[in-house]
Amino acid sequence: MLNKNHHRLPATAGHPTSTLHQYKPPATHPILRRDSTVNFFSTTFLIFRPTTMPISGMVDRVAIGNVHEEVSHPGAIKAFVAEFISTLIFVFAGQGSGMAFTKITGGAPTSPAGLVAAALAHGFGLFVAVSVGANISGGHVNPAVTFGAFVGGNITLLRGIGYIVAQLLGSVVACFLLLFTTGGMTTAGFAVTAELSIWSAFVFEIVMTFGLVYTVYATAVDPKKGDIGTIAPLAIGLVVAANILAGGAFTGASMNPAVAFGPAVVSLDFGNHWIYWAGPLIGGGLAGIVYEFVFINRSHEAVPSSEY
Protein backbone atom coordinates (compact mmCIF):
# COMPACT_ATOMS: atom_id res chain seq x y z
CA MET A 1 0.00 0.00 0.00
CA LEU A 2 1.28 3.51 -0.82
CA ASN A 3 0.52 6.69 1.06
CA LYS A 4 -0.33 9.97 -0.61
CA ASN A 5 3.38 10.81 -0.94
CA HIS A 6 3.91 7.53 -2.82
CA HIS A 7 6.00 5.96 -0.09
CA ARG A 8 5.51 2.35 0.83
CA LEU A 9 3.74 1.85 4.17
CA PRO A 10 5.09 -0.66 6.71
CA ALA A 11 4.61 -4.28 5.78
CA THR A 12 2.84 -6.86 7.87
CA ALA A 13 5.16 -9.16 9.77
CA GLY A 14 5.96 -12.05 7.48
CA HIS A 15 5.00 -10.13 4.31
CA PRO A 16 7.99 -7.86 3.51
CA THR A 17 7.91 -5.26 0.80
CA SER A 18 10.42 -5.00 -2.00
CA THR A 19 10.40 -1.27 -2.73
CA LEU A 20 13.26 1.07 -1.91
CA HIS A 21 11.28 3.46 0.25
CA GLN A 22 9.35 2.59 3.34
CA TYR A 23 8.15 4.51 6.36
CA LYS A 24 10.72 3.86 9.10
CA PRO A 25 9.74 4.90 12.62
CA PRO A 26 12.53 4.66 15.20
CA ALA A 27 12.49 1.42 17.14
CA THR A 28 11.80 2.99 20.51
CA HIS A 29 8.49 1.66 21.69
CA PRO A 30 6.77 -1.70 21.71
CA ILE A 31 3.84 -0.40 19.69
CA LEU A 32 5.69 1.40 16.92
CA ARG A 33 5.11 0.01 13.44
CA ARG A 34 8.41 -1.66 12.74
CA ASP A 35 9.69 -5.24 13.08
CA SER A 36 12.82 -5.18 15.20
CA THR A 37 14.28 -6.04 18.55
CA VAL A 38 15.02 -3.11 20.82
CA ASN A 39 16.05 -2.24 24.34
CA PHE A 40 13.13 -0.54 26.13
CA PHE A 41 13.18 0.04 29.88
CA SER A 42 16.38 -2.10 29.76
CA THR A 43 14.35 -5.04 28.45
CA THR A 44 14.84 -6.62 25.02
CA PHE A 45 11.72 -7.67 23.15
CA LEU A 46 10.08 -7.82 19.73
CA ILE A 47 8.23 -4.93 18.13
CA PHE A 48 5.33 -5.94 15.90
CA ARG A 49 4.57 -3.99 12.74
CA PRO A 50 0.92 -4.15 11.67
CA THR A 51 -0.49 -3.47 8.26
CA THR A 52 -1.71 0.13 8.48
CA MET A 53 -4.12 2.34 6.61
CA PRO A 54 -3.39 6.08 7.00
CA ILE A 55 -6.11 8.41 8.19
CA SER A 56 -6.23 11.71 6.34
CA GLY A 57 -5.53 14.36 8.92
CA MET A 58 -2.51 15.42 10.90
CA VAL A 59 -0.02 12.88 9.59
CA ASP A 60 0.08 9.64 7.69
CA ARG A 61 1.48 7.88 10.75
CA VAL A 62 -1.92 7.88 12.47
CA ALA A 63 -3.40 4.56 11.37
CA ILE A 64 -6.42 2.30 11.82
CA GLY A 65 -4.55 -0.99 11.64
CA ASN A 66 -5.29 -4.50 10.45
CA VAL A 67 -7.72 -6.64 12.47
CA HIS A 68 -5.61 -9.80 12.25
CA GLU A 69 -2.35 -8.15 13.33
CA GLU A 70 -3.78 -5.66 15.83
CA VAL A 71 -6.62 -7.58 17.47
CA SER A 72 -6.47 -11.33 16.92
CA HIS A 73 -2.72 -11.87 16.56
CA PRO A 74 -1.25 -13.78 19.56
CA GLY A 75 1.08 -10.86 20.23
CA ALA A 76 -1.85 -8.46 20.38
CA ILE A 77 -3.82 -10.73 22.71
CA LYS A 78 -0.81 -11.00 25.03
CA ALA A 79 -0.56 -7.21 25.04
CA PHE A 80 -4.24 -6.86 25.97
CA VAL A 81 -3.84 -9.34 28.82
CA ALA A 82 -0.75 -7.47 30.02
CA GLU A 83 -2.66 -4.18 30.07
CA PHE A 84 -5.50 -5.83 31.98
CA ILE A 85 -3.15 -7.24 34.63
CA SER A 86 -1.05 -4.08 34.95
CA THR A 87 -4.14 -1.91 35.40
CA LEU A 88 -5.58 -4.36 37.91
CA ILE A 89 -2.34 -4.19 39.93
CA PHE A 90 -2.29 -0.39 39.82
CA VAL A 91 -5.94 0.19 40.71
CA PHE A 92 -5.94 -2.47 43.43
CA ALA A 93 -2.95 -0.82 45.12
CA GLY A 94 -4.16 2.76 44.67
CA GLN A 95 -7.79 2.24 45.65
CA GLY A 96 -6.82 -0.27 48.32
CA SER A 97 -4.52 2.23 50.03
CA GLY A 98 -7.37 4.73 50.26
CA MET A 99 -9.72 2.12 51.70
CA ALA A 100 -7.08 1.03 54.21
CA PHE A 101 -6.57 4.64 55.31
CA THR A 102 -10.32 5.06 55.77
CA LYS A 103 -10.47 1.94 57.94
CA ILE A 104 -7.49 2.93 60.07
CA THR A 105 -8.79 6.45 60.67
CA GLY A 106 -12.39 5.36 61.19
CA GLY A 107 -13.64 7.29 58.18
CA ALA A 108 -12.09 10.59 59.24
CA PRO A 109 -11.91 13.42 56.68
CA THR A 110 -8.98 13.49 54.30
CA SER A 111 -5.82 14.75 56.00
CA PRO A 112 -2.37 15.76 54.76
CA ALA A 113 -1.10 12.33 55.82
CA GLY A 114 -3.82 10.67 53.77
CA LEU A 115 -2.91 12.71 50.71
CA VAL A 116 0.75 11.76 51.02
CA ALA A 117 -0.19 8.11 51.49
CA ALA A 118 -2.36 8.21 48.36
CA ALA A 119 0.41 9.85 46.35
CA LEU A 120 2.97 7.25 47.45
CA ALA A 121 0.67 4.30 46.86
CA HIS A 122 -0.27 5.44 43.36
CA GLY A 123 3.28 6.43 42.49
CA PHE A 124 4.79 3.12 43.60
CA GLY A 125 1.90 1.13 42.16
CA LEU A 126 2.23 2.78 38.75
CA PHE A 127 6.00 2.31 38.79
CA VAL A 128 5.47 -1.42 39.20
CA ALA A 129 2.52 -1.65 36.79
CA VAL A 130 4.41 0.10 33.98
CA SER A 131 7.55 -1.96 34.62
CA VAL A 132 5.83 -5.35 34.50
CA GLY A 133 3.93 -4.49 31.33
CA ALA A 134 6.68 -2.67 29.46
CA ASN A 135 8.17 -5.62 27.63
CA ILE A 136 4.78 -6.97 26.54
CA SER A 137 2.43 -4.07 25.86
CA GLY A 138 4.47 -0.99 26.66
CA GLY A 139 2.82 -0.62 30.06
CA HIS A 140 0.28 2.09 29.20
CA VAL A 141 -2.07 1.34 32.14
CA ASN A 142 -4.09 4.40 31.15
CA PRO A 143 -6.49 5.22 28.28
CA ALA A 144 -5.08 8.76 28.21
CA VAL A 145 -1.57 7.41 27.57
CA THR A 146 -2.92 5.12 24.86
CA PHE A 147 -4.82 7.99 23.25
CA GLY A 148 -1.73 10.19 23.39
CA ALA A 149 0.26 7.42 21.70
CA PHE A 150 -2.44 7.10 19.02
CA VAL A 151 -2.57 10.76 18.04
CA GLY A 152 1.22 10.72 17.82
CA GLY A 153 1.13 7.77 15.44
CA ASN A 154 2.70 5.32 17.88
CA ILE A 155 -0.20 2.87 18.09
CA THR A 156 -2.97 1.97 15.70
CA LEU A 157 -6.63 2.70 16.37
CA LEU A 158 -7.60 -0.97 16.68
CA ARG A 159 -4.76 -1.82 19.04
CA GLY A 160 -5.54 1.30 21.06
CA ILE A 161 -9.19 0.34 21.46
CA GLY A 162 -8.12 -3.10 22.63
CA TYR A 163 -5.79 -1.56 25.19
CA ILE A 164 -8.48 0.75 26.54
CA VAL A 165 -11.04 -2.05 26.88
CA ALA A 166 -8.45 -4.15 28.75
CA GLN A 167 -7.59 -1.23 31.04
CA LEU A 168 -11.23 -0.57 31.90
CA LEU A 169 -11.86 -4.24 32.63
CA GLY A 170 -8.75 -4.40 34.81
CA SER A 171 -9.95 -1.45 36.85
CA VAL A 172 -13.46 -2.85 37.30
CA VAL A 173 -12.16 -6.27 38.35
CA ALA A 174 -9.73 -4.67 40.81
CA CYS A 175 -12.54 -2.71 42.45
CA PHE A 176 -14.81 -5.76 42.71
CA LEU A 177 -11.92 -7.69 44.27
CA LEU A 178 -11.47 -4.89 46.80
CA LEU A 179 -15.20 -4.92 47.54
CA PHE A 180 -15.01 -8.64 48.26
CA THR A 181 -11.69 -8.79 50.13
CA THR A 182 -12.50 -5.86 52.44
CA GLY A 183 -15.84 -7.29 53.48
CA GLY A 184 -17.97 -4.89 51.49
CA MET A 185 -16.15 -1.59 51.94
CA THR A 186 -17.05 0.95 49.27
CA THR A 187 -14.55 1.86 46.61
CA ALA A 188 -14.76 5.64 46.66
CA GLY A 189 -15.42 7.30 43.32
CA PHE A 190 -13.72 10.51 42.27
CA ALA A 191 -15.42 13.78 43.13
CA VAL A 192 -14.80 17.48 42.70
CA THR A 193 -14.39 19.46 45.91
CA ALA A 194 -17.26 21.81 46.69
CA GLU A 195 -15.04 24.90 46.45
CA LEU A 196 -14.04 24.11 42.87
CA SER A 197 -16.13 24.73 39.75
CA ILE A 198 -16.70 21.96 37.25
CA TRP A 199 -14.67 23.76 34.61
CA SER A 200 -11.78 24.40 36.97
CA ALA A 201 -11.70 20.68 37.75
CA PHE A 202 -11.85 19.92 34.03
CA VAL A 203 -8.82 22.11 33.30
CA PHE A 204 -7.03 20.68 36.35
CA GLU A 205 -7.34 17.17 34.92
CA ILE A 206 -6.18 18.36 31.48
CA VAL A 207 -3.03 19.96 32.87
CA MET A 208 -2.11 17.07 35.15
CA THR A 209 -2.60 14.49 32.41
CA PHE A 210 -0.64 16.60 29.95
CA GLY A 211 2.30 16.44 32.34
CA LEU A 212 1.93 12.69 32.72
CA VAL A 213 1.77 11.86 29.01
CA TYR A 214 4.50 14.39 28.19
CA THR A 215 6.70 12.51 30.67
CA VAL A 216 5.83 9.20 28.98
CA TYR A 217 6.89 10.60 25.62
CA ALA A 218 10.08 12.18 26.94
CA THR A 219 11.30 9.13 28.83
CA ALA A 220 9.85 6.19 26.88
CA VAL A 221 8.91 7.16 23.32
CA ASP A 222 11.45 9.75 22.21
CA PRO A 223 14.17 8.03 20.12
CA LYS A 224 16.70 10.49 21.59
CA LYS A 225 15.96 9.47 25.18
CA GLY A 226 19.17 7.45 25.55
CA ASP A 227 19.84 6.09 29.02
CA ILE A 228 16.92 8.07 30.47
CA GLY A 229 14.67 5.30 29.16
CA THR A 230 15.87 3.01 31.94
CA ILE A 231 14.15 5.17 34.54
CA ALA A 232 10.97 5.78 32.55
CA PRO A 233 8.68 3.73 34.85
CA LEU A 234 10.05 5.56 37.88
CA ALA A 235 9.65 8.98 36.24
CA ILE A 236 6.07 8.14 35.24
CA GLY A 237 5.24 7.00 38.77
CA LEU A 238 6.83 10.10 40.28
CA VAL A 239 4.93 12.56 38.10
CA VAL A 240 1.66 10.87 39.06
CA ALA A 241 2.57 11.04 42.74
CA ALA A 242 3.49 14.72 42.41
CA ASN A 243 0.24 15.52 40.61
CA ILE A 244 -1.76 13.76 43.33
CA LEU A 245 -0.08 15.97 45.91
CA ALA A 246 -1.03 19.00 43.78
CA GLY A 247 -4.54 18.05 42.70
CA GLY A 248 -5.71 15.31 45.00
CA ALA A 249 -7.48 17.72 47.32
CA PHE A 250 -9.34 19.35 44.43
CA THR A 251 -10.35 16.69 41.89
CA GLY A 252 -8.89 13.50 43.31
CA ALA A 253 -6.21 13.75 40.60
CA SER A 254 -7.36 10.89 38.40
CA MET A 255 -5.33 11.57 35.21
CA ASN A 256 -6.66 8.19 34.11
CA PRO A 257 -10.19 7.34 32.90
CA ALA A 258 -9.74 3.69 33.91
CA VAL A 259 -8.87 4.64 37.50
CA ALA A 260 -12.09 6.65 37.73
CA PHE A 261 -14.22 4.12 35.84
CA GLY A 262 -13.75 1.09 38.11
CA PRO A 263 -14.83 2.77 41.35
CA ALA A 264 -17.73 4.47 39.57
CA VAL A 265 -19.03 1.13 38.27
CA VAL A 266 -18.75 -0.66 41.61
CA SER A 267 -20.21 2.20 43.65
CA LEU A 268 -22.72 3.19 40.92
CA ASP A 269 -21.66 6.80 41.40
CA PHE A 270 -21.14 8.57 38.08
CA GLY A 271 -21.43 12.14 39.33
CA ASN A 272 -19.33 14.46 37.12
CA HIS A 273 -17.76 11.33 35.68
CA TRP A 274 -17.32 12.97 32.28
CA ILE A 275 -14.58 15.18 33.73
CA TYR A 276 -12.41 12.14 34.37
CA TRP A 277 -12.73 11.07 30.74
CA ALA A 278 -12.69 14.34 28.82
CA GLY A 279 -9.95 16.00 30.87
CA PRO A 280 -7.38 13.19 30.71
CA LEU A 281 -8.08 12.37 27.06
CA ILE A 282 -7.66 15.99 26.00
CA GLY A 283 -4.55 16.42 28.13
CA GLY A 284 -3.03 13.17 26.89
CA GLY A 285 -3.86 13.94 23.28
CA LEU A 286 -2.35 17.42 23.49
CA ALA A 287 0.84 16.04 25.03
CA GLY A 288 1.13 13.44 22.29
CA ILE A 289 0.66 16.03 19.55
CA VAL A 290 3.06 18.55 21.08
CA TYR A 291 5.86 16.12 21.81
CA GLU A 292 5.55 14.05 18.64
CA PHE A 293 5.31 16.93 16.19
CA VAL A 294 7.55 19.47 17.94
CA PHE A 295 10.33 17.41 19.50
CA ILE A 296 10.38 14.15 17.53
CA ASN A 297 11.37 14.37 13.89
CA ARG A 298 10.32 11.29 11.93
CA SER A 299 10.67 11.12 8.19
CA HIS A 300 10.33 8.75 5.26
CA GLU A 301 13.72 7.36 4.33
CA ALA A 302 15.22 4.52 2.39
CA VAL A 303 15.38 1.32 4.39
CA PRO A 304 18.28 -1.08 3.75
CA SER A 305 17.11 -4.34 2.24
CA SER A 306 18.44 -6.19 5.29
CA GLU A 307 15.71 -4.58 7.42
CA TYR A 308 12.90 -6.07 5.37
Automatic annotation (TrEMBL):
Pfam families: MIP. It comes from Centaurea solstitialis (yellow star-thistle). Keywords: Membrane, Transmembrane, Transmembrane helix, Transport. It is found in: Membrane. InterPro entries: Aquaporin-like (IPR023271), Aquaporin_transptr (IPR034294), MIP (IPR000425), MIP_CS (IPR022357). This is Tonoplast intrinsic protein. It is a multi-pass membrane protein. Channel protein in tonoplast. These proteins may allow the diffusion of amino acids and/or peptides from the vacuolar compartment to the cytoplasm. Belongs to the MIP/aquaporin (TC 1.A.8) family. TIP (TC 1.A.8.10) subfamily. Residues 1-24 are annotated as: Disordered. The chain crosses the membrane at residues 79-101, 113-134, 140-161, 168-192, 198-219, 231-254, 274-296. The keyword Protein biosynthesis does not apply. GO terms for molecular function: water channel activity. GO terms for cellular component: plant-type vacuole membrane. SUPFAM superfamilies: Aquaporin-like (SSF81338).
